[in-house]
Amino acid sequence: MKINDVILRTVTRIVVFIILTFGVYLFLSGHNTPGGGFIGGLVLASAIVLLYLSNDIEKVQKSLPLDFKLVAASGVLLATGTGLGSLLFGVPFMSQTFAYFDLPVFGKTELTTVTIFEAGVALAVVGVVVTIILSISEDE
Amino acid sequence: MFSVTFAIIIPFIIAALVPFIYRRFKLLHIGWFVMLVPITLFVMLARLIPSVASGKTYIHTYNWIPSLNINFTTYLDGLSMILGLLITGVGSLVILYSIFYLSTKESLQHFYCYLLLFMGAMLGVVFSDNLMVLYVFWELTSVSSFLLIAFWNHRKASRLGAQKAMLITVSGGIAMFVGFIMLHTMSGSFSIREIIANVGDLTDHALFIPAMILVLLGAFTKSAQFPFHIWLPDAMEAPTPVSAYLHSATMVKAGIYIVARFTPFFGGDQLWFWVVSGVGMITLFWGSFNAVRQTDLKALLAYSTISQLGLIMSLLGLGSIALQYGYSEESIIYTQATFAALFHLINHSTFKGALFMVVGILDHELGTRDIRRLGGLMTFMPFTFTVGVIGSLSMAGLPLFNGFLSKEMFFAATVQIMNADVFSLQTIGIIFPIIAWIASVFTFVYCMIIIFKTFLGPVQPEKLDKPLHEAPVGMLISPIILSVFVVGIFFFPNLLGGYILKPSMESIYPTFGDPANLTPSIHAWHGIKPELLMTIGVVLVGALLYRFLKKWKPIYGLLSSRYTLNAYYNNFLSFAESKSTIVTNKYMTGLLRDYLVYIYIFFILTVGGFFFYSGAFSPSFSMDVRIRAYEVILVGVMAVAAVAMLFSKSRMTATLLNGVLGYSIAIFFVIFRAPDLALTQLVVESITTALFLLAFSHLPDWKKERVPSKTKLTNAVISVGTGAVVVLVALAVLNYDRFETISAFFENAYELAGGANIVNAILGDFRGFDTMLEVVVLFIAGLGVYTMIKLRAKKGDENIENK
């Protein structure tokens, strides 16, 4: 069955970038405004799922050669790793810290270890969602 | 002391690295690399021998969970030193041996990873002072032993043996865990040193006896004491290096270590004395009696290990009586049993390790270890023969080998115990030397079987698959080193006594003052005493019994195979399996509907029940804000969608209606100013829809199901009940004032966590632990979906389990 999905594909090309940007924005802004690792990861995942929906799997995999199982695993490793990392500084497991820095372009910016942790969460979410959806869709 | 903590951690780190190194260096056998670990640790520990011998102990605490009294405390004293040296020393030799035993075709990265895991866990057991940490390492040794026994997991016997070992040792471990908790309840501390220091106040505690029994259960299962010994012969399915290492030299000594470690606490109690020495004696006899009937050399060695472990255990029991007397000139004599136990612990590791390696060589080079197919190997395998003879004669307790010294001390201790005037030993104490003597006769017989049936007698090349030849040099190095120890310890036993055994006597008898008084000088010749006469008797009667083995062997046939412990174990296992299948099938129906019913009933009963009983269902409408028109409309839409879903004709309609519900909730979140939730709800809704579309083609037709009206009615009641509880709870929480709200704390998120978004500060910082575990759970679920779909057996795939 051949479906005429020209509109979907054309729209997807543009929309995916908007969604991806939005996902990254959500991830970064999560500390002070709505957003965060989980929701950012979900939005990124939905963009990737949209890609898979509008194009066929082989095509996407050629342009986006990622093993999403590894993405998920590295996310989990990063999230737990930040927890363990705090042990190196002699503070209890999963302690987070933050500080303010003056960066050249951004001005006074807050940098926090939560961001690393959240990055792990986001990666894990993206990896798991895409892995599940891909494996179900590839199932005969 | 940093280096002891270090010694525990290093094997784990290297174990994690092994797979990567293995991939890099395919050409070199990875065992060479792994061998560096135990050698380094052995040298590190050996350097501390002189200072430990002078009475110094090393302690280092790393605060882990101080609020629960659980700290990573390592403690190095004489007793843990013995075990530490055995673990690293025998470990080095076993790894050297395994390099030649296992070809590079085997999955070596797994083997050495598990082996290092075991080594780290075992070092953790002996060096931990905190009971909880010790328990974790204790179970880890069971797990790694399971993995190693099942190393050749394509064989059914390996898997069953691993399962048996796991079930028995872990059950014992859990019993011990409960015992540890009781010890903590009694003393308020998890530290073994502190518990032992407080022993005086605790002996009359109601939990003293239960805790003792539970700890002993753990020790007995691990050290394969009767009636838990049945796992050890089956564990022989493991590769021989594993049997030599775990199942003769180290892991099975963990139970003995625990008994020795807790002797200052429980020792002196009558029950402890009788249970430890009694079980030890029974095991000693039963193991040696059963070893004689074995035809598989490895099974023979397994039973002999059981028997020797029983010997050491009973000695520890006999030695504990000294604590009943307290320190005096007269009671010193009883501590010699404990001294003999520690001495034999070391000796057993040397000669039994060597013997296991010899059997491994036979198996590896000739393809069999069945004594009915072996014979006359002396001329073909002179080195193997020499090591085998040294090991066997030492085990039999003959002079020129270290086994003689400790065996004599064992006899001396059993004779000595008859003089004790407590526990009515003067009347029934006579059973100790009798059982010891009988068991030793059988020990002598099976040692002769090892020597004569394999190395002497007629050669049977037609029964062997491979030509007769000596083993490669590499495989011989380790057993030869061990047999050098066997002979060396006989000639210089007091070196061992002074440096290694003396400080550990202090660990077991901390109240007895100068350990030098507890350290007898070991002599091979000490005049004609009962123990020497007993040895002579053993040799004479043993030789006769061996000569007429064929005549009396039929008595083993009298033991019905239906009433053995193994049969009980198997029956129990199949009984438990079938019964639990019946129970599980009763409620695991495979219908999603039923599972939801369980969940909702549970929800109504617990949540609804709690609110009802605590009288919290008192919705007051005083705080109400005005309900606006669009909220009413939204609720109306949701209600219509929900009811319509029940009557929808196609799956697609139902999905769309479900989507309506989901997006309406998102709108509610927007109205109530919860942008985070709204965003999440929207994206989750979209992704679920995509997921559903994907799954659409896999789903069966949407059929009208015929459900009895009774079920329908119950389901309706449950669903209405669930809805009602949710509504009531939602109304009730507005006025709930039973405990203070915690939200005030989070309002300082900007100062505490530097984040203005409270939701995110809670997720990432305040309750970061939850989030981390949620991520892990999510990942596990993802892997589950992936494996179920991708790796399931297709129709027509062959069953690869029992090749």
UniProtKB/TrEMBL annotation, chain A:
Compartments in which it is found: Cell membrane
Positions of transmembrane segments: 7-28, 34-54, 66-91, 111-136
InterPro entries: CPA3_antiporter_subunitB, MnhB
Annotated GO CC locations: plasma membrane
Span of domain Na+/H+ antiporter MnhB subunit-related protein: 7-131
Family membership: Belongs to the CPA3 antiporters (TC 2.A.63) subunit B family.
Protein name, as recorded: Na(+)/H(+) antiporter subunit B
